[in-house]
Design goal:
There is one protein chain. The chain has about 350 residues and is of the alpha/beta class. The protein folds into three domains: about 55 residues, no CATH class; about 100 residues, no CATH class; about 160 residues, Dipeptide-binding Protein, Domain 3 (Dipeptide-binding Protein, domain 3, Roll), CATH 3.10.105.10. It is about 45% helix and about 15% strand. The strands form three sheets. A five-stranded mixed beta sheet has the order 1-10-2-9-3. Strands 7-4-8 form a three-stranded antiparallel beta sheet. Strand 5, helix 8 and strand 6 form a beta-alpha-beta unit.
Length: about 350
């Protein structure tokens, strides 16, 4: 008769095992537990081991890329004109720079090569940031509709049309109609909505997408004079000079907390939550981030890639020749933009 049969019998107390059997069982359990600790605890097999947690964090898609120590020869970061981010050809072809830093939302351009970053790129999803006093709950479904439909490739195509001369309002309204986002229910007495665009063409068209749909909902939309960087845009929101700004969410986070570089760099995928948390003191709140990601890209021309042998970010840390890397003015001084080049890509700079 096995142990279970004895335990479940009801025909008398004499079926209970002697105490020495219970003592032996307890000793056996203790020995087995100690052996399991030695085997799994020290070798990382247990789910609570610190090494296991580190591995999970390293492979967590919501975590930022790991920081790397800058290596190789120091490069030079210089300012170039990126009024058309997809076409830094003039500076590249003139030999002023050998590479350029551009956002991932650039339109495709013939003759440009995007350097392979090995998957180590910090996301910067385009996100609307509003003042509390205009952030009506009825805006949420409108913003969520844009967020779900606007991808990096979609925005790149819209940017190309704007750069090529199409009127930005027509481009925005046409895209909304094509995606079934133009028919919206009117909001009761929504009031004014002052939209402050940034002058990068992809961010200009993104701001107009929100402006068109908010105008259709009944807001009195006005577009302010564009500004060149997110710090100025966030300042206008703080000072109640604007109601809505649309830009890279992580870049906006860095602009809201300029003295805490770790906040923007280390934030996980919940950029909206981080923005709204930090923005509370400034009187602003974020809405749904879009699928359009303004992450950094390093580009060069086909000819330069062939002559320098550089077609991957890793080549910049291996090469013995310092390179001149062009970027828009805000990137050369931005802790987030320059910080990514140094911490994510591992580049060193001379100044």
């Amino acid at each position: 008769m096995d142990e279970d049969d004895r335990r479940h019998r009801t025909s008398g107390a004499s079926a209970s095992p002697p105490r020495w059997i219970w003592a032996a069982a307890v000793v056996a359990v203790v020995v087995l537990a100690a052996g399991a600790f030695l085997v799994f605890g020290r070798d990382g097999g247990g789910s609570d081991d610190a090494g296991s947690d580190d591995t999970a964090a390293a492979t967590d898609p919501d975590s930022p890329p790991p920081s790397v120590a800058p290596t190789g020869e120091p490069h030079e970061l210089v300012t170039i004109d990126l009024s058309d981010p997809a076409m830094p050809d003039a500076a590249l072809e003139a030999g002023d720079v050998t590479l350029a830093v551009v956002p991932a939302t650039v339109r495709p351009a013939e003759g440009l090569v995007i350097l392979d970053a090995g998957g180590q790129v910090l996301s910067d999803p385009i996100t609307p940031l509003l003042r509390f006093d205009v952030a009506l709950p009825e805006i949420d479904p409108l913003a969520e509709g844009i967020a779900a439909a606007l991808t990096s490739s979609e925005l790149a195509a819209l940017t190309r049309r704007v750069v090529d001369g199409d009127e930005v309002g027509d481009v925005a309204s046409g895209w909304l109609a094509d995606n079934g986002l133009d028919a919206v229910d009117p909001i009761d007495a929504p009031g004014p909505m002052r939209i402050l665009p940034l002058d990068a063409p992809d961010l200009t068209i993104a701001a107009h997408l929100y402006g068109e749909v908010l105008g259709a909902a009944g807001f009195e939309v006005t577009y302010l004079e564009p500004v060149s960087d997110e710090v100025a845009a966030v300042g206008a929101l703080r000072d109640r000079e604007a109601d809505l700004v649309v830009a890279g969410g992580r870049t906006l986070l860095a602009a809201l907390a300029p003295f805490d570089g770790e906040l923007a760099y280390g934030a996980g995928s919940d950029v909206r939550g981080a923005l709204s948390g930090v923005g509370a003191d400034a009187g602003v709140v974020a809405n749904a981030p879009t699928a359009a990601d303004r992450a950094l890209r390093l580009v060069t021309t086909v000819a330069l890639a062939a002559s320098t042998g550089i077609d991957a970010v890793a080549d910049l840390t291996d090469t013995g020749d310092p390179q001149r890397i062009g970027a828009e003015a805000t990137c050369t001084v931005s802790p987030l933009c320059r910080g990514q080049l140094e911490r994510t890509f591992g580049l060193r700079f001379a100044s």
